[in-house]
Design goal:
The protein is mainly beta and 437 residues long. The chain has a domain of 164 residues. Helices cover 2% and strands 27% of the residues. The strands form five sheets. Strands 2, 4, 5, 6, 9, 11, 13, 14 and 16 form a nine-stranded antiparallel beta sheet that branches. Strands 1, 3, 7, 8, 10, 12, 15 and 17 form an eight-stranded mixed beta sheet that branches. Strand 13 and strand 14 form a beta hairpin. The longest helix is centred in the N-terminal third of the chain and has 4 residues. It is elongated, with a radius of gyration of 28 Å.
Length: 437
Amino acid sequence: MSKKILTIFGLLFCSLFFSQVKTPVTGGSAHIPPSAAKLTDTDGDGIMDDEDRDDDNDGIPDALECPGQFFWTGPITFSAIDNKVATGTINGVNYTYTSSQPLSSTGNLYAHSNFPASYGVPNNNPTIRNIQVTTNTLTFSSPMTDPVLVFSSIGSSSIAVPIIFSNPIEIIWASGGNTVTVNSPTQITGIEGYVILRIPGVYNSISFNYTVAENYANFTFGATLPLPCDYDGDGIPNHLDLDSDNDGCLDAVEGDENVSSGQLVTANGTAGVGPGSIAQNKNLCATSSCIDFQGVPLIVNSGGAADIGNDQGQGLGSSQNSNACSSCYKPGVLGGTALDTKMGITALGRAGSGNPDNWPMVRKGGWVALEAKTKGFVLNRVPFNASGNPVGISPSDFVEGMTVYDTTNSCLKLYTTNDSGATYGWHCINIQTCPDQ
């Protein structure tokens, strides 16, 4: 690849970028104790939320569901004494960047347009340029929440470059294909890779080792602060909400990869859809056997059955667009002969041919009509046993189309078949669809 180079002898201006996450420090990096997330495993997959990149196992990383507000470094002052040191300020917090090798720079961030504009990655002149094996440290004048690092052009098509971090990382965005591989909670490898990542926690300092020399890569840094991330306002943050927009369609299916409803499983832990959603509490994985080491379901990782991006996890898709749910309503058929509705239940005292309203015959095209202004229609409410059958109704009385409300599993159930008549059973019908038959 072709990259223009600008060398600075003793002074260097660099850009720093930081973001939002949730992990304690190790290896001497000072930090403030983590929150209750350290003790919580929302999706029940065996990884605590503070180290889980996908807290609700919908396949959409937390960093996408709750990105936070990004802040960027201002101008950087470089040491006139030691050209391995640069200083600057991010959102009012002073920092010092130190490299184990003399600093050099470029006039911009290489291939800046590769990064999504929504993150606002800075394109500063100059930007840190690294060609060597280096140890790099960021030290903050006061505790910094969830530092974020940006790397542009890690390695090349012929050079794989591992980067090792002082603390566990969380990928916010990475270039597609296999250009960036997450090797462990503290290591990535780039092959002409571009990545935005953060180190969850509150730190006085962080560090990373660039382990292979190459033509060059750019580094830039910044910070984020948390923002409210409850799209549907149901009191559950998006990264813990299986239906972030309360449209009745699960986030796992509305993500941007090829997840089908048949690949969903009943959610474990306390993960749920929240009040107001008609969707079931389902996601992509309920145990430790179907996730990677960062808690992201394998089905949407590179090579997974639903993966289309050759990367870790899936994008937001329409999970935060309440108008994009695949559920729908179909208009009534207006052509042909209008048939009377001959059976009805009314609380308004206007039934029969002797009533001027001629109810329910005035309502056309239905098998049954129900009406009331202050009363609701309540189906039989029955508990279900461990065999999946209603308590108190003999199996000999089951008839296809029979409908009851299951008080054990909190859903409306229909006795029918979903395998063309091979078997029959009780199925929840709380997800809207548009059947043609």
